[in-house]
User: Fold these one by one.
Assistant:
Number 1:
Amino acid sequence: MFEFENMLHDEFIELPFKIMFLTVVFIFGICIGSFLNVVIIRLPRHESLIKRASHCMTCGTKIRPIDLIPVFSWLFLRGRCHSCGEKISPRYPIVESLNGIMYVLTFIVLDINAKAIITCILMSLLIVVGFMDWDTHEIDMIVVGLIFVLAIPAAIFTDDVELVHRVIGALAISVPFFIIGEVSRPIIRKKFNEDFRAIELGDTILMFAAGALLGTQAVIVSALIGIIAAAVCGIILKVITKDSKFAFGPYLSIGIAAAMLWGNQIAQWYIGLLTYEPQ
Ligand SMILES: [Zn+2]
């Protein structure tokens, strides 16, 4: 960090330098995003993340190095495999650019410091959690474990959350989620004759890990944003797909990402609204 620390918000630093820095961050972000695609596809199948070279999902042809450039290769190939011409999912460039954009956004909001680096790692882990849950209705415990572990460097290198609020934060949402899950289980079994919970254990453990990282205020904000996003998108998706099964993880991930960037400001603003007294 040293001499670069908090340079982006420094008005005496030239704009071209800032743009150059953010461009490098974006390119780095889409390259990591390329690896996230591999993780999202291979982790649920328990395939090695590094052993086998990337290959076409249809014809199995090994992908040429020239076609492995994040985002740009997909655009250049117009979204088709160079060997069999089969469509390549737009998911690949979407995940890559999303990761690049989240890195850039993180540095713009937080500036260059330890919290920004921890947040970038979190953003990538959330992209994996969100897309994997969307695909498989399963939240991967290895990735959630990594989010929890991020609370350690956060506690050492940043000072915006007190240790006691990391403990309370871990419990603030996960405990109510657990209770809702337990209470809903017999009701769902009785009504639909199926064994699942209104809020799954995976979502509960995700909010435990996120709470340790975010602290009390921000984790409550993250859950509120997640619930609102899930309600809005859930209604829209239900109209389109008529599918009643529903992954909560992607929306919680959006909430956690937003709360990591703006959690305390949103909490202050909301508390300000509640305690507003007209003169
Ligand atoms: Zn192919």
Number 2:
Amino acid sequence: MNIRPARLKDFGELLFIEEQAHIYPWPESTLHWCLEQPHLRCFVMEHERTITGFAIYECVLDEATLLNLAVNPEVQGKGLGRKLLRQSLLVLDATIGKVFLEVRVSNATALHLYLSEDFVEIGTRRNYYPIATGREDARVLELNLDAYRTK
Ligand SMILES: CC(C)(COP(=O)(O)OP(=O)(O)OC[C@H]1O[C@@H](n2cnc3c(N)ncnc32)[C@H](O)[C@@H]1OP(=O)(O)O)[C@@H](O)C(=O)NCCC(=O)NCCS
């Protein structure tokens, strides 16, 4: 299992994972756009040349926002999400000192993962995400990446 920067030719595999992993996947155009943006850092996790997950960060000055983290559902629950999160955080530019993200209040797996990797909750965005019955809140989390690097 290794992490490398995503390339445009990975798009098909990333789209497959996006559509399998998320209840409300991004449109194709959003994912494609991400792969073309120089201020976004997109990483894929590979095992024997097959992409098993990806992470996308937006980086501005000394802050990054984790826009997307997804693991192919066929291999979820085996520790790959944690490896992908850890390794991608540790290869962000040294100038990045803080990382932010939003996560659905109902996403117990992702919340557990982030909190156990030292993210802390700093707020709530009301009615941020669609759900079948209406909207649900997002929790806003922050990581002190400088401290995380020295663990
Ligand atoms: C979130 C995601 C990336 C995690 O990847 P994964 O490979 O399944 O995660 P891991 O196997 O590394 O497990 C991470 C932790 O979640 C825990 N976990 C698994 N299912 C859980 C559940 N239902 N409730 C709480 N914790 C759970 C695991 O036990 C593990 O914690 P531990 O190491 O303390 O035991 C993956 O589930 C995914 O792609 N989900 C869909 C997309 C998504 O929600 N992305 C996050 C958006 S913010």
